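(Deposited chain)
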Amino acid sequence: MKSKLLIAVICAAILFPLILTGCADKTPEAISSRFENLAEGGKFVKSEGKAGESAVYELGGQKTFNTLVLKEKGDSITKFRLYADDGAEPFYGNDFVDGYRYCSFGEVTASEIRIEVQAAEGEWKLAAVEAYLAAGVPDGFEVMSYIQADAAYSLTAEQAVIARNVTDFNLFGAIYLNKDGGLELTEYEINGEVLGGEEVLREAVKVLKGVRPDATVVATVLGNKDFGDGLAVNERHGSAMGENGDKLIANINALIQKTGLDGISFDYEYPRTIKDFNIYAKFAEKLKSAMPAGKRLTAALALWNISLTFMQAKELEPFDRIEMMAYDMFDKRGNHSTFYDSAYEIVKQLDKKGVDLKKVNLGLPFYSRPVNADSYWGNYYDVADKLGRYDNTYVEAYTDLDGKEHPELANYYNGRQMIYDKTSYAIDCGLGGVMIWHFGTDSFDPDLSLINEINAAITARGAKG
């Protein structure tokens, strides 16, 4: 009897996480409570097969929708296309379905959906289809882009056209902290002239506000440069934000005043210990309370930074925005920013941790990483005209940061449709916005620009509400 009971307990322990996993891939309440599932009551005519075969889902009548949710049992599908009724041309395509795939597009009217699986790792089986006609954009939804300070200073007319679709800018590469709470500003050589960092920041703010007068412009303070102190990054931050915190705050406020910045940001990668996180959290609270009214405090964070052990949701309250770094998160295939891991799971975990989603800007990478996680970051603009709308993977040779040349290998980007999907998902989940890393890696061809895809997704969702 005891052995049978033990076996039952062990089986329950094994099965319980699996049951949770099977039930976990649900549409967020922010979406399901606002929009009717137009596929409810529909049925699969065919739900499984091999690469080259199609699933068919009957909606139960003619429906108009702009979003489909696909759920797969397993993760075999690696490339698919969607067709309405007997249509010959797909209205949507992408790579992986996984447990949850949010597919967003212009309005489609159909009574039947055909899901063509163009590539798969073995047999596949779809579990569910949901359809929504999503509309409305949260008030204050941001399109925030990091941009190098000297690039903003020298913004071209071609780039300015794209920049008008950005609501908030974060200047980086210009400001570094030292262990004593001082700020070290980068000197730039622009058009043969050496310019001080303060001058470049001040002019960059003017340029960006000239392009978009209602934009907010903040600047990132980095602590990853050794000015002769020999300290690790976390030790330097600990010294600057801890015993020298008052001096750092005074220097930050003085810089904001001199340059016309709308606020300051931190990209602290990464605190290592609980003590590091405590210093950071206390400093953020103290800095925010000391900043002039209306000035912003933001920070780039990774999901693992937010936990009971490190920074809890309540300790994020001083930050006006959390720039969620939803990239460089390699899955089992080596892809660093898929929809499932870097949008669906990110939002789900943040909500579970009690983070105010209205403060979160979902990070969107405008670059690639190789599937072997080498130290290489490819620029989207280099492949924009080669990467199809529905594609995220591009095979290319590359040279890593150590100067080592590598033969052709799959590099994972976020293509135009992926960026459109993630933006739509951020809108529909009620996030504060999206965050772009970074402006200089976009294509400035209006038809290929990822920033323009973000704007298209916002425009398609209609009036704010």
Observations:
- Residues 2-24 form the longest helix (23 residues).
- The mean pLDDT is 94.
